[in-house]
Amino acid sequence: MDDRLTRFEKLRQIVAQCRACSLHTSRPHFVFGEGSLQARVMFIGEAPGKDEQRTGRPFVGRSGKLLRQMIAAIEIPETDYFIANIIKDRPPNNRPPEKEEIETCVKFLKKQIEIIEPKILVFLGKTAVKGLCPNLAHLSVEILRQQSKNLGMVSYMDIPVVVTYHPSALLRTPYRKVGAAEDFRFLESAYREMAK
Ligand code: URA
Questions:
Q1: Domain boundaries, the chain
Q2: Are 79 and 36 in contact (CB under 8 A)?
Q3: Are β-strands 120-124 and 159-164 bridged in parallel, bridged antiparallel, or unpaired?
Q4: For 84-134, where are the alpha helices, taking DSSP H only?
Q5: 192, pLDDT greater than 80
Q6: Cα 196 to averaged position of ligand 1 atoms, centre (Å)
Q7: 47 Cβ below 6 A of ligand 1
Q8: DSSP annotation of 145
Q9: Residue range 6-43, pLDDT digits in tens
Q10: Which of 103, 115, 143, 162 reaches 20 to 30 Å from 136, CA-CA?
């Protein structure tokens, strides 16, 4: 555990010094991610928004509130999940991150996954797919949601992935909440199965 913490904090320092793309100009705060270093479930979003940039914490705005409610509803304890993003800095006006930005930044998330060694990854929307499974990025979130319910059919480094909507998409198009609830029920059963 100490080793994980040491590696994690070293990585945080590296990110703090990163100037590889122009997004670092949005600091003082980058958003490294938060949660347990022993988490078995890792939620992967897109990039920090205004509230996240202000606080340095992931998913603390409106979409974050919704995400955290959905996680609480399936009773994954805080000690067993970690929340991170593909991109560590806020893109101007919350525009979607560009391909080069994703390619430059995702290596930090990949290191975080290597350190934490989660048992399930949850991709919140398409940017997570683009970052970690770019070979699947031509498929729609709808198709990937269905495929990922065959647990292991969508994976990153042999870690099974559950694909669902980004919570901002749920705020924009509430009818998708029905599908998202189904995805989280599936996640709950996969999580319980793993805990046996
Ligand atoms: N949206 C994201 O993708 N990540 C955050 O941290 C907040 C909003």
A1: 2-195
A2: yes
A3: parallel
A4: 99-116, 126-132
A5: yes
A6: 31
A7: yes
A8: H
A9: 999 999 999 999 999 999 998 889 999 999 999 999 99
A10: 115
Do the bridges between strand 41-45 and strand 34-35 make them parallel or antiparallel, or are there none, so unpaired? unpaired
The CA–CA distances, whole Å, from 52 to 82, 100, 157, 195 equal: 15, 22, 28, 31
In the chain, the N- to C-terminal Cα span, in Å, equals 23
The SS3 of residue 59 is: coil
Q: With 0.85 as the threshold, say if the pTM is over it.
A: yes
Measure the CA–CA gap between 87 and 125, rounded to whole angstroms: 13
Q: Report how far residue 77's alpha carbon sits from residue 103's, in angstroms, rounded to the nearest whole number.
A: 31
Tell me the CA–centroid distance for residue 138 and ligand 1, in Å. Answer: 22
Q: Is the CB of 53 under 6 A from ligand 1?
A: no
Rounded Cα distance, 122 and 70, in Å: 13
CB 172 within 8 A of CB 84: no
Band (82; pLDDT cuts 50, 70, 90): very high
